[in-house]
Design a protein that fits this description.
Order of helices and strands: HEEEEEHEEEEHE
CATH class: Alpha Beta
Strand order of the largest sheet: 3-4-5-9-8-7-6
Number of helices: 3
CATH superfamily: Mog1/PsbP, alpha/beta/alpha sandwich
Helix content: 25-40%
Radius of gyration: 18 Å
Oligomer: single chain
Length: 156
């Protein structure tokens, strides 16, 4: 019985190492940003001016959504922040996310909250890219490695 438990623990440890090693750098098709995902992301259904990629697995989710026609470039600095918050709030409402906290970060805002229906934990960063007239929403659900995902994001 002990041998079975030890073998089981070794296999679980190796599976954890294998999972950790599957993080891959993803570069958007237009070469405007890169971000690391724990595997190969799937493109989400494209809507006018909105693109996205996601991975949903093991009670975790990682998504990046890009508004390529945000209009933020035409606004003055103070109005850009208001537009960014409005964009985020509209996005979260459509995704049925209830935010519980927001704080300013470099280039945007960070949010925490829950999915309204099942109360799953959500973390998000909403970032502006004024020169390219873009807004990025990086979001994780469940017990995802949020900080690792957020820290890997780079505008190119």
């Amino acid at each position: 019985m002990r041998k079975v438990m030890v073998v089981g623990l070794v296999l679980l440890t190796l599976a954890g190492v294998a999972t950790a090693a599957t993080w891959k750098s993803f570069t958007a098709p237009d070469k405007k940003f890169s971000i690391d995902f724990p595997g190969d992301p799937t493109p989400m259904k494209e809507q006018q001016g909105i693109q996205g990629w996601a991975i949903f697995a093991d009670m975790k989710a990682y998504t990046v959504t890009v508004s390529t026609e945000s209009g933020i470039k035409t606004l003055e600095s103070g109005a850009q922040d208001k537009a960014l918050l409005d964009f985020a709030n509209n996005f979260f409402q459509g995704a049925e996310v209830t935010t519980t906290d927001q704080k300013p970060i470099s280039g945007g805002y960070e949010f925490t909250g829950t999915i309204t229906e099942d109360k799953d934990r959500v973390k998000a960063q909403v970032l502006k890219d004024v020169p390219n007239d873009r807004v990025y929403i990086l979001m994780t659900f469940g017990e995802a490695e949020s900080q690792r995902f957020f820290d890997s994001f780079k505008k190119l």
